[in-house]
Design goal:
Shape of chain B: globular
Radius of gyration of chain A: 17 Å
Protein name (chain B): PRTase-CE domain-containing protein
Catalytic activity (chain A): 5-amino-6-(5-phospho-D-ribosylamino)uracil + H2O = 5,6-diaminouracil + D-ribose 5-phosphate; 2,5-diamino-6-hydroxy-4-(5-phosphoribosylamino)-pyrimidine + H2O = 2,5,6-triamino-4-hydroxypyrimidine + D-ribose 5-phosphate
Organism (chain A): Sphingobacterium tabacisoli
Radius of gyration of chain B: 21 Å
Low-confidence stretches of chain B: none
InterPro entries (chain A): NADAR (IPR012816), YbiA-like_sf (IPR037238)
Helix content of chain A: 25-40%
Strand order of the largest sheet of chain A: 1-7-6
Largest sheet of chain B: 4 strands, parallel
Oligomer: heterodimer
Protein name (chain A): NADAR family protein
CATH topology of chain A: Tetracycline Repressor, domain 2
Number of domains of chain B: 1
Number of helices of chain B: 12
Structural class of chain B: alpha/beta
Number of domains of chain A: 1
Largest sheet of chain A: 3 strands, antiparallel
Chain lengths: ~200, ~350
Amino acid sequence: MNIKEKIYNISDSVVFSKTTAAFGGLSNMASGYSLFVNEVNIANSEILYQICRFPLFPKLQEDIISLENPMEAKALARKYEKYTRQDWENVKVDIMRWCLQVKLIQNEDTFSELLKSTGDKAIVEYSAKDPFWGAVPTENGKLQGKNVLGRLLTEVREIIVKQNQKLEMVSPLTIPAFLLFNYPIEAVHTAEYSVEDLDNVYAY
Amino acid sequence: MKEQLAQGIHNIIKGYRAEDQINITPEHIIAWADQFEEDSIFMLTELNHILPQIYITKEKAKEFILQHINWLVNKYGYQSISEFLIDTEFMKIQQEGKSQFAILELLQEVLNENWQISFQQYSTFPKKNFVYFDDVLATGSTLGRHIVDWLSLANGDQRNIDLVLNDQYQLSINLFCLHTWGHAFQKYRLNKDFQDALGRKLSWMHNMTVENHARFPNQSYNHAFPVHGQPINVQSYLANLPADKYENYAYRNEAMPVNERFFSSRENRIKYENILLQKGLSIINQIKGEIKPNIRPLGLINPTYKTFGLGTHFLTWRNIPNNCPLVYWWEVPGHDWIPLFPRKIIG
């Protein structure tokens, strides 16, 4: 994967790390951004990302989802790393981008506002040791790394800010075996789509 | 043969709405079955198989309520039933005549029989546990609305949701039966209506599960859920429904359930589901004038859902949900159909 490392000035960037600190909601580990994919309740985008590793292991997907806690989910996924889909390295960035789009479409008020509040600064995930998804501190007080998560967040921000678009639907990825519990993952809708008419069953 | 089969069914459901002076006789059961013409024996046979799994007698309901009380006492860590009752309010949100009232009446009996105690004697104590009883979450529409409204209520300068979030209140939803598909939607709705704060602060307990979520693993589909390959009248009914959501939930995956545990066999399931679908459609075809958009052959559902209905198979001694297939409860003067279970209409 040909993504080049960058060096970021902290003062010119929106840097996030801990979920409880400023801009913590940008983290995949943040609580408060629940999802509904194939009408299955998924507590956060980290869990969504981790279940995409294991399309042929529905029981493992079920166990990961039931944890609800993203740190525990990540730990469980690591334990079963050998069952990761073979093309994971080639598809994981696309999967992460899709996860962020799902987080955005189903958390219109909160996540979209948070992204907008980053203005036009670079979004950088501070990490002590992962220069792929985030950027690590350098000796001269900067951050260096591929910062893929930060860049994907910036990309998602572009959709809502620059293009001023409201996502109507997030289409599934066209990769093989994009499955949840053995069923193809289908288009993901807004929270409003699933919730708005729940009270209408007996309105006649 | 028919008489024997009808007698078998009668033995199971003879208490149905006895309190309303309804008396379902074996003759009524045969008259109902005869509407299925050459399939009458088949329907009676299959019903003998499934009814014990889906019909809740008053006695069974009391067993369920006892399980709920023991579960709550244990969950909240009380040493005695009276300490639990002092702190607990059994919510009365539904209107009189609905299931919640009936369940709370039975709760009185259960408390009296097991502990010679009544919850009403503690009604004036300040409460911190709030228990919402109901018989079934089908689509969950009523329950979801009630819980949202209750959590939004202001109690002084704090709403109930604030009191739940800061652990001053504990809220529990206690059901006899829960449908997995409707439950997923209501959980999502409660998450979104309260900014994803509620999470595990809300407790759920139920005695029976209708596994009807077509995207969950290992569902037993203990309800009516037809397969693809239906005759043209069924296909055209679905295509012409003025609904546009969840069409991918109209038919089940024929490979599911993996093991048939609900119907008498895999083949009989398909035959039964198809009969219900065809008869339900012929009932709908008798409707003159506007057809309400929530009516489907397999039972009421959200009007925007492009499916054949919820297909619920669960009923109690006091009523049948209208999410059950129409053949069981449809009763309109002038229509050529008699229901097996006359439905009590409240409010």
